Amino acid sequence: MSGAKKEGGSKLVSENRKAFHDYFVLDRFETGIVLTGTEIKSAREGKVQLRDSYAELDKGEIWLKNAHFSPYSHGNIWNHEPTKKRKLLMRKAEIRRLTGKTVEKGLTLVPLKMYLKNGWLKCELGLCKGKKDHDKRDAIAEREQNLEAKRAMRARNAGSHDD
Prior knowledge:
By secondary structure, this protein is an alpha+beta fold. It has two domains: 5-131, Small protein B (Small Protein B, Chain: A); 132-163. The protein contains four helices and ten strands. The chain has helices at 17-22, 37-44, 92-104, 133-160; strands at residues 5-7, 10-15, 23-33, 48-49, 54-58, 61-65, 68-69, 86-89, 108-117, 120-130. The N and C termini lie far apart (48 Å).
């Protein structure tokens, strides 16, 4: 199976790395997802893209929008539409709590990753707050400083072994 990585008992199908660049993740939730046969087969092949996708609350239900499930390679004329909206499965109490947070505080629901857990496809949703441009610049500067420090330590440790 190409495109999927193992991650501690579950198999990572797709990860939304851009979400961590664009948002502060305040809370995480594991949800199920309603799929057709060709969609789950495509996901098992690792052909899912979460970039620019989001979740939306509508009439007490959560919908995943703009997630791209590539058409299944062995599908026929009844293959699925790649970017249709898909229903996410959560308990009603959690949905009510999320509704309050997204409406009042202006937070967003962003899918962070999808993975297979015991044969079921799960979606990890993040309750996120958007980053401003200066926050993104600060994060990039901090990452570069850490990288520079690691390089300096590596160079120092490599030089000390020349006894």
